[in-house]
Design brief:
With 149 residues, the chain is mostly helical. 60% of the residues lie in helices and 0% in strands. It has eight helices and no strands. It has helices spanning 15-26, 31-47, 51-54, 65-84, 89-102, 105-108, 119-128, 138-146. Helix 1 (15-26) runs antiparallel to helix 2. The radius of gyration is 22 Å and the shape is elongated. The N and C termini lie far apart (45 Å).
Length: 149
């Protein structure tokens, strides 16, 4: 049975109460963030709106904030690989193609790249591990490299 109020230092069992507690704790530090959280909880409780929607995680037109974070992370990794390759986009494109052609699926599934790989290949591996794919054309790579934030 969930307690209405948690003891100091413990979290309530109910996730709604946890969110309300977080909003209350934020009020004195970041009022706007606290109001955003409180509003999301109110929408969920009073209207049954899914928390992903009320918090903005559901995204619009299939683009979620999660996708935006993963894309930015992937693009930063590709940008770092580009620097290693002396800012040569064609060399980056060749390295991406070599990765796709020569790296086995078993190696691609590994969380960490093989330490014997070149730094560029290790960065490309990490870019692929973001789970949203890596552009396979020079034009696609250039577009990705323009959007690193």
């Amino acid at each position: 049975m969930s307690k209405p109020f948690a003891q100091p230092g413990t979290l309530p069992d109910n996730p709604i109460r946890r969110m309300r507690l977080a909003a209350r704790l934020l009020r004195g530090h970041h009022r706007e963030l606290a109001l955003w959280l409180e509003s999301a909880v109110q929408q969920h409780v009073h209207h049954g709106t899914d928390m992903d929607h009320t918090l903005g995680f559901a995204g619009v037109l299939g683009r979620t904030p999660r996708f935006d974070v993963l894309r930015a992370r992937r693009n930063r990794l590709l940008s770092r690989a580009l620097v290693v390759l002396h800012n040569d986009v064609l060399a980056l494109h060749c390295e991406v193609q070599k990765y796709e052609e020569r790296v086995s699926l078993a190696q691609r599934d590994r969380a960490e790249p093989d330490p014997s790989w070149t730094l560029a290949r290790q960065l490309i591996h990490r870019a692929y591990r973001q789970g949203i794919g890596v552009p396979g054309t020079v034009l696609g790579l250039r577009k990705a490299l323009r959007h690193t934030s």
